[in-house]
Amino acid sequence: MRPSHLILAASLAIAFNAQAQAQAQQAAPAVATTAGTLVIVPAYGEVKHANDEATVTFSVEEQDKDRAAAQARVNQKMKQGTDIVRREDPHAELKTVNYYSYPVYPEVQENPPRPLANQAARRVPIGWRVGQYLEVRTRSLDSLPKTAAAAQKVLGITNIDYHLSPELTRKLDDERIAATYRNLNERITSIARAMGRNVNDAVIDTVDFEGSGHYAGGPEMAAAPMAMMRGKRADMAETPEPSFEPGETRLEMRLVGKVKFK
After folding, report:
1. Structure confidence by residue, pLDDT tens digits, 98-135
2. Residue 239 counted as domain residue
3. Total structural domains in the chain?
4. Does residue 170 share a domain with residue 40?
5. Residue 80 pairs with which residues in a beta bridge?
6. What residues contact 12, with CB distance under 8 A and at least 6 apart?
7. Domain final position from 120, 136, 156
């Protein structure tokens, strides 16, 4: 091959390689450096456990033209109901709350209606409504239907709230913290992989277990299931045992970590 041809071939090869390198540089996306990057990482954890405690609210209400007569019946039935609950569940904690008494007025239907001032002057109560509530806190969940049926002979059930006892809640808190911190490390590993970094280069700078708003999107939420029952006061006849399902409670925790890459 002639020298001129060799020179031409070498020039073409150099030009081709330069063009190929330029095209490769244009095709490859630019990658931002992550050295010293500070990453805010939210994490979440939860534990579930069957409820071991319940608060049952019983109530009694009476209406009579004589307020004293209504109050006497309420006092008597509340005492009877309290004695029944204490007998059926000796370990329960009892608390009487919300004693109320107010007048009952007749419905006024006049055509044309009288002025409001005249209506107020002519309103005379036709009776009195008196009532009281009894809160029962118990951990005897197996015998609760029997206790409720016995108390319903004189009291009505207004509300049932199943929840975790304070002792069990404190015990589960260790598991909740561990689950949340484990989730933080899992997310840091995923973030490091997405950034093309080694997770060993990540250093946890700050951990906010409250997730209180500096970095998190909202407050911690805790779900506690509640069973509601409303019914009329039962008489002294035998009352069938109600069906109760304690269910379970979910304890949640949110944390936010500040992670810095070397």
Report:
1. 999 999 998 766 565 666 555 555 678 889 999 999 99
2. yes
3. 2
4. yes
5. none
6. none
7. 156
* pLDDT single digits (tens) 174-219: 999 999 999 999 999 999 998 888 889 899 988 888 765 454 443 3
* Distance between CA atoms of residues 127 and 106, nearest Å: 9
Token duo for residue 102: 């107010």
* Residue 164: CB atoms within 10 Å: 20
Q: Return d(Cα 15, Cα 9) in angstroms, integer.
A: 10
Domain hosting 234: range is 34-52+164-262
Task: Give the relative orientation of helices 144-151 and 67-88 as an angle to the nearest 10 degrees.
Answer: 150
What's the predicted TM-score (pTM) here? 0.65
- Token pair for 117: 């001032």
